[in-house]
Write a structure and sequence with these properties.
alpha+beta; 7-stranded mixed β-sheet; 3-stranded antiparallel β-sheet; 10 strands; globular
Length: about 220
């Protein structure tokens, strides 16, 4: 962990820092989004770009594994490259942190390469907590609870686009993570968080843009 972390003033409900210890604030009832702001090592970035080259079409890898099983499973699934182990080690750190933080036995991992927004509408997750990090391309967008009308989520939008539904009133209230950031998103099933799950969506991608991201759910 960093000895001198930089904590950045942020919207309500958000706890973010350059120190991974920020994840412990997940247990603060006022927080519904924790963000570890990190820089990716060159080796990890190199392998991320390699994966985008190897998977020219939308590709998804799903794994459910204990920490001991995960590294070997990733070795079997991911293409060989001199920096593959650096990438796997990076993912393993996140899995270890999630398991320790939530007292889990295993993780459900999803690695996705895409050229389109996989979840293009703002929504909340019907789960306890999800980890997400973007290794390449634009990262997840989210809204502060103070800026939204939750009645306009899902069917409440009446088929209108997010920007026209009344869900939020101004474009500049949309926040976006940076690639490399590791986020813990509280959903509706986190104890005491009903009606406060973080509202988020996948970013829109331009014609030539592609994205590599990983999500993890704790398996208890």
């Amino acid at each position: 962990m960093h000895s001198a972390a930089t904590v950045i003033t942020a919207p309500s409900g958000l706890s973010q820092s350059t120190d991974p210890a920020v994840f412990t604030s997940l247990y603060n009832s006022e927080v519904n989004l924790c963000v570890w702001q990190r820089e990716l090592a060159d080796e990890v970035t190199q392998y991320s770009e390699y994966l985008l080259q190897q998977y020219p079409h939308a590709t998804e890898i799903r794994l459910s594994a204990t920490l001991q099983e995960l590294s070997l499973a990733l070795e079997k699934q991911l293409p060989a490259h001199p920096q593959r182990q650096a990438f796997i080690d990076n993912v393993m750190i996140l899995a270890d942190m999630l398991i320790c933080l939530l007292g889990a036995k295993a993780v459900g991992l999803r690695l996705c390469v895409t050229g389109t927004a996989t979840c293009p509408r703002f929504h909340v997750d019907k789960l306890g907590c999800r980890l997400i990090t973007t290794y390449s391309g634009p990262a997840t967008e989210w809204l502060d609870n103070a800026d939204i009308d939750r009645s306009k989520l899902g069917p409440g939008a009446e088929g209108k686009a997010d920007e026209n539904s009344g869900l939020y009133t101004k474009y500049n209230c949309i926040h976006q993570l940076k690639h490399g950031d590791v986020a813990l998103l509280k959903g509706e099933l986190w104890p005491g968080n009903e009606g406060k799950g973080i509202v988020h969506r996948s970013p829109a991608l331009k014609l030539t843009q592609r994205r590599l991201f990983v999500t993890m759910d704790a398996i208890t």
